[in-house]
C-alpha cells in the first residue's frame, strides 16, 4: 500500500537528490558521498583556501600600512576639513602617528614599526588602501565585513566559500574558526560565522586549540565498539525521521554534521598535535616569545597552516586581549585612548605569528594556493580622541591580501593626505569578496542561493573584481 503522504516515488526522488541517507549509511565506513566534496568551480581557480586574520576592534591604517607624513607635520593642529560623525564625536586635533615607517623589500612599500615581521614578506602582499565600510559600529561593522549585511541572519563569507567549493577532507569541516587562550568572540557573536539561510553544514566549527577538547565533546566517552553500536541504532532512527521530513534541508545538514563530528574524533587531535613540528618552525611562529598572547596567537597561525594543508577551505583566526589584562576581549584593537600602548601590545601579539605564517606557507609551497587576508571592520581617525586615542573611521582604511594569485608588493587605491577618506579607487567589502571568490574559481554573481523569493549573494547586488592586484 502506498502512503498518500510519502509515496515510493517521492522517496526515490528525494533520496536521489539528497545526501542525508547516504551520509548516514557511510557514518562508520571509510566511504563518503562524493557530492558533498569539492564541487567544480565556475572557472579554473588560482587558490584553494583562505586564512582570515581578523583584527577585531579596528586597527589604525595610518599607523600600520598607510603612512601620512602630513599628520606629523600638523600634529596638534585643528582638522582643516569637515569632521564626519562617527562613534563618540568628542574629537580632538590632528594626531600624528607615534610609529615610524620604513620601506621594505624590492617593492619598497612602507610598513610601520608595528609590523617588522610581516614587513619581511611585503613583496608577497597586496595592500588595498581605499577600503570603506557602510557602518561605524563594531557589531554592525563585523557583520558587514563577514556577510555583506550590517545585521545578523546572513551567511558569512566562510560559509559561502564552503557552500561553493565543498571540503577536500571528509574528516574535517570546510570552515573553521580558531580560538586560543582568552581569545573572545568579536562583537556580533557567533552569528558572524553563521551559515544563515545556507544549509547548516556550511557554518563554522569553532576550535579552542589549547584546550584538552579543542571542540566540545570531541573525545569519545565510551569504548569504540560501544559507540559503534549506539551509532548504528541512531542511524536507523535518523533514516526513518529523514524519510518523514522528505529530506528536509535542515535535517540533512544535521545528519551531515553528525557524520563529520564522528570522523573529527580522530582528525582534530591529530591536527592539534604539534610534536612533528621542528623547534625552528615553532620559534618562527612565536612559541618562544615572552608575551603569552604572542604564543597563543602563534598556535592559531600554525594550526591554520595545518588545517589548509588538510584541505579546510576557510580558517578564521581570533585576536586575544592585550597582554596587561585590561584590553577588551571582543574588540582588542579598539583604542579610543592611549593608542600607542594598545596598538603596540596588539601588534606584538600578532606580528611575529602572521609573519611566520606567511614565510612557512611560502616555504612549503602553500602560499600560491592560499589567500591570507589581514583586515578589521574599519580603520581609525587621523585626529585624536580621549587621551591620544583614535575614533572609528569607516571612510577609508587598509586591508591586505597575500598569496593565492594576488600581486605582491603592490598597493591599490589611496586615502586623502590625512588618511581620512578614500579618494582613489574607492573599494568596498563587496569588491574584496568578489576578488577572493574570483581567485577561488567562483563567479560572485553566479554563487547564489534561493531565499525569500530572490537569489541571494555574498556580494548582494554589488561587487567588482579588483583585477589590478591580481597577478
TrEMBL record:
<dbReference type="InterPro" id="IPR017850">
    <property type="entry name" value="Alkaline_phosphatase_core_sf"/>
</dbReference>
<dbReference type="Pfam" id="PF07394">
    <property type="entry name" value="DUF1501"/>
</dbReference>
<dbReference type="InterPro" id="IPR006311">
    <property type="entry name" value="TAT_signal"/>
</dbReference>
<dbReference type="InterPro" id="IPR010869">
    <property type="entry name" value="DUF1501"/>
</dbReference>
<protein>
    <recommendedName>
        <fullName>Sulfatase</fullName>
    </recommendedName>
</protein>
